[in-house]
Amino acid sequence: xxxxxxxxxxxxxxxxxxxxxxxxxxxxxxxxxxxxxxxxxxxxxxxxxxxxxxxxxxxxxxxxxxxxxxxxxxxxxxxxxxxxxxxxxxxxxxxxxxxxxxxxxxxxxxxxxxxxxxxxxxxxxxxxxxxxxxxxxxxxxxxxxxxxxxxxxxxxxxxxxxxxxxxxxxxxxxxxxxxxxxxxxxxxxxxxxxxxxxxxxxxxxxxxxxxxxxxxxxxxxxxxxxxxxxxxxxxxxxxxxxxxxxxxxxxxxxxxxxxxxxxxxxxxxxxxxxxxxxxxxxxxxxxxxxxxxxxxxxxxxxx
Length: 303
Hints:
Helix content is 78%, strand content 0%. The N and C termini lie far apart (69 Å). It is built from 16 helices and no strands. By secondary structure, the chain is an all-alpha fold. It has one domain: Farnesyl Diphosphate Synthase, CATH 1.10.600. It is globular, with a radius of gyration of 20 Å.
């Protein structure tokens, strides 16, 4: 029997393909953001480690993994052009298994979210709704290069940060935590735009109007760099105003490094985008945790 025949007669997903479907490499941003929220809350983790563990599990493997499965199912026709070796178009996840996995993980998300109290459950409802709104018809916000990356940025950074702070503090975070979480979520729009470079050809053919498609790679990359940088300047300014100059200085140093990475990226936006994810984006998320500790210091002082 040929490889093609095996794929067409497969009844159950390959375990390795199912793991690839939920993309562990994408789990880090929301897990990190949840931890940033927990740190920034100022609450002691003593006696609350189960909430920290459950929140990280929920933000990364469960909700983010679910969103990846939903996206691959809804994108299976685009992926057949861009990346035909992906689990669903390759047949290693046959039939409607991709959809069933996404739906099962949606239910699991809500079950775990319920264990995190009203703030955690409410945030889970928002995250699940955002994941399906991004990928599924008739909403399918990923068709827009503005709304799609914006929704993902807020879902990956702002929502888990806010949730981690709310769950650990057992109440709504103060406005400094909320505004910093929001700024980093807005900046993540740029990260998501750079992520769209890998699907440029398929998006163009299938009518997905990502910014690399509508603006072209060079203009889209330049815009993404600005979108990432401006919110960080705002965070630095706020930290100075809040009497956290050393934290502000550390984030400013990371931003300078990111601006260097921006210049390298702009020499070849499509080719350098994967490299930038390991350099510029790493500096971006490092600044998030520094900001979280700055906010924690403010909370401990009653600021």
